[in-house]
């Protein structure tokens, strides 16, 4: 049988307060949220006026929206929410056809300047995975001081 004294009660209250304050410091992992069509600058460089719908479909993929009242307009939308930075980046490309030929590309990019586009983050994509630099700091005091090198 455990007897609860005022000293034990203080220790329990202190331990509970420490546990609560430490639990407030822990933030659960939240993955980045991507929605829509990934729009690569390298893919946009391949688009030319006069292309057929089939060629545009092959390069950019299935559009997110085909206007039911105007089948000559395709909309490609991409949104990425970076949970760490609490930022959302978006791209919208609208493709307009006359008959079966591409006549206009509007939105975040002008087809006349598409050759000058810098490679986007999505251009580094390989096999469905975006390749990025490691963001985790080196673990351990000896590794950070250079005494022990864990990469070998």
UniProtKB/TrEMBL annotation:
<dbReference type="InterPro" id="IPR026592">
    <property type="entry name" value="BamE"/>
</dbReference>
<protein>
    <recommendedName>
        <fullName>Outer membrane protein assembly factor BamE</fullName>
    </recommendedName>
</protein>
<dbReference type="GO" id="GO:1990063">
    <property type="term" value="C:Bam protein complex"/>
</dbReference>
<feature type="domain" description="Outer membrane protein assembly factor BamE">
    <location>
        <begin position="36"/>
        <end position="104"/>
    </location>
</feature>
<dbReference type="Pfam" id="PF04355">
    <property type="entry name" value="BamE"/>
</dbReference>
<comment type="similarity">
    <text>Belongs to the BamE family.</text>
</comment>
<keyword id="KW-0472">Membrane</keyword>
<keyword id="KW-0732">Signal</keyword>
<dbReference type="GO" id="GO:0043165">
    <property type="term" value="P:Gram-negative-bacterium-type cell outer membrane assembly"/>
</dbReference>
<comment type="subunit">
    <text>Part of the Bam complex.</text>
</comment>
<comment type="function">
    <text>Part of the outer membrane protein assembly complex, which is involved in assembly and insertion of beta-barrel proteins into the outer membrane.</text>
</comment>
<dbReference type="GO" id="GO:0051205">
    <property type="term" value="P:protein insertion into membrane"/>
</dbReference>
<dbReference type="InterPro" id="IPR007450">
    <property type="entry name" value="BamE_dom"/>
</dbReference>
<keyword id="KW-0449">Lipoprotein</keyword>
<dbReference type="InterPro" id="IPR037873">
    <property type="entry name" value="BamE-like"/>
</dbReference>
<keyword id="KW-0998">Cell outer membrane</keyword>
<keyword id="KW-0564">Palmitate</keyword>
<feature type="signal peptide">
    <location>
        <begin position="1"/>
        <end position="26"/>
    </location>
</feature>
<dbReference type="GO" id="GO:0030674">
    <property type="term" value="F:protein-macromolecule adaptor activity"/>
</dbReference>
């Amino acid at each position: 049988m455990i007897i609860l004294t005022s000293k034990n009660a203080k220790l329990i209250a202190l331990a509970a307060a420490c546990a609560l304050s430490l639990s407030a410091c822990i933030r659960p992992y939240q993955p980045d949220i991507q929605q829509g069509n990934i729009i690569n600058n390298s893919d946009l460089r391949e688009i030319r006026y006069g292309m057929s719908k089939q060629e545009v479909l092959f390069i950019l993929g299935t559009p997110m929206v085909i206007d039911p009242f105007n089948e000559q307009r395709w909309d490609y939308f991409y949104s990425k929410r970076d949970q760490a930075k609490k930022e959302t980046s978006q791209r919208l490309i609208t493709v307009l056809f006359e008959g079966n030929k591409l006549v206009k590309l509007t939105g975040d990019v002008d087809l006349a300047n598409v050759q000058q586009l810098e490679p986007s983050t999505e251009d580094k994509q390989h096999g469905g995975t975006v390749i990025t630099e490691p963001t985790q700091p080196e673990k351990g005091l000896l590794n950070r001081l250079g005494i022990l090198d864990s990469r070998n």
